[in-house]
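Hey,
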Amino acid sequence: MTYLKNRPAHARILPALLLSTALLSAAPLAAQTVSTDATELVPVAGLQASWDTHQTALSTARDELKKQLAIQSKVEADISTQKSKIEDGKKALNAAVLKVAEAKARLAKVDVETDDVAGAQLAEIRDTAQQQLDDIIVDSATASDEIAVLKEELSRAVATVTEMKKAVSAAKAAASAANLVVEAVKSAQLTIAKNEADSGEEPSGIEGEFFAEAQQQAEATQKSAEVAQKALNLTMEREKIIASNLRKTEARLSELQKSEGGAIKAFTTADQALRAHQKKRQAAEDKRLAEVEKIRAELASAETEMSARTDELEADTLARQEMAAIVAATQDRTSDLEQAVVSAEQAFSSVNKDLRAAQKTRDMQEAAILADLNADLKARLRATGLQARADDRVAIPADAIFKARSAKLSGNDAVDLGAVLAAAKELSGDVPDGVDWVLRVDSHSPGGSDESWLLSQARALSLAQQVVKDAGLPLTRVSANGFAGADGDAYVELVLTAR
C-alpha cells in the first residue's frame, strides 16, 4: 500500500518510469536486436550487489576522508591557533622581560643612598654653636664660681679691715696712752729730780729706770700700732683688688650672659635648621625606601610573570611540536584515505560501467518484453470492445465509466470494466519473472486548469484502487497518474511499463 499512499494527490505527474516513445512504438522495436526471451535476460543482481558493495565502500571511503579532512582542518586550525598563541606568548614574554629590565633600571637608580652633604654642614654648624654655647656656659659657671669666691674673699677682707681698723685704733690708742705714760714719767722724773735737788738728797735712780721702761713700752706700742696700720693698709689694698676683680668678673659674667642668649639663639636656629633638614631628608628617604619597596614588588611581580610566560611559552612550544607531529600523521592519514578514495572510485567506476552496460541491455530487453506485452494488452482491450484512438492508443472513455465531472465509477454497461480488469490481470500473469513492471492507470482530462488536473488525478486513483481490488494486483505494481490538457474528450489508459 505504500506505493499508492506515498503518491501526493496534488502532484501534477506522479513519478514513474515511463516507456519512451521509441520503445513503445512497434517500428523501433523491430529494428532492435534485443532478445525478448525471458530466459535470456541479462543478470544484473550480482552486478547490482557488487555495485552496492563498491558504492558503499566508496561512500564509506569518502565519509572517512571527509571526517579525516575535518580532523585535519581542525588540527591545522589548532596548530595555527597555537602558532598565534606562541606569537602572543613571545610578545607577552618580551613585555615581561622589558618590565623586569625597566624595574631593575628604576631600582638601580632609586636604591642608592646619597651622602648628606647639606646635613653634615648643618650638623657642623649646630655642633659649633653647641660648643660655643657650652663654652659660654662653662665660662659663665666659672665666672659665677669666681664671683662667689671673690664675694666671700671680699666679705672676709671687709670684716678683716673692720677688725683691723679697730685694732689699729686700739694700737694707736695704746701708743698714745704709752706716750702719755712716757710724758707722765718724764714729768714725774723731772719733779722728783727737782725735789731731790731741792732737798739735797742723792738721786736714787729709780726714776730713770721707770722712764726707760715706760719709754721702751711706748716705743713698742707705737711699733705695734705702725705694724697694725701697715697690715690694715695691706688688707685694704687687698680688699680693693678683690673688689676690682669682683667687678671685672661680674662684668665678664654679664657679657657671658649676654653672649649666652645669642649663643642659645644661634644653637636653636642651627638645631632647628638641622632638624628641619633631617625631617625633610627622612621624608625623602622614607619616600625613596617606599619607592624602592614598590619597585621591588613590581620587579618580583614582573619576574614572576616572566617566569610564568617562559613556562607557558615552553609548554606552548612543546604542544606545537606535538601538534606538528599530529598534523604530519593526520596529513599522512589523509593522503592514505585520499588514495583509498581514488582506488574506491576506480573500482566503483569499473563496476558502475559494467552495471550500466548490463542494465542498459537489461532495460532494453525488459522494454522490448513490455512492449510486446503492451501490444498484447491493447489486443485484449480491443477484445473487450474498446476502440483504438487516432494515435493507436486503446483508451477507455471517461464518461463511459465515471459519473459526469466525478471520480466515482458509474457502474453503467457502456464499457465492460470487469473484462478490462480481467484482461489486465491475465496480462500481469504473463510478465516474466525478473522484469520490474508497473501497470499505469493514466487519466487524461481536457483543459489546463487545476480543477481538470485534480479531477484527472482523482479518477486515476479511483480506477487504480479498483484494479488493485478486482484484478488482485499488488499495490507496488499499480501507479495512478493524472494529466490535464488532453485533446478531445477525457479518457483513461492502461499502460504496462517498466517501473
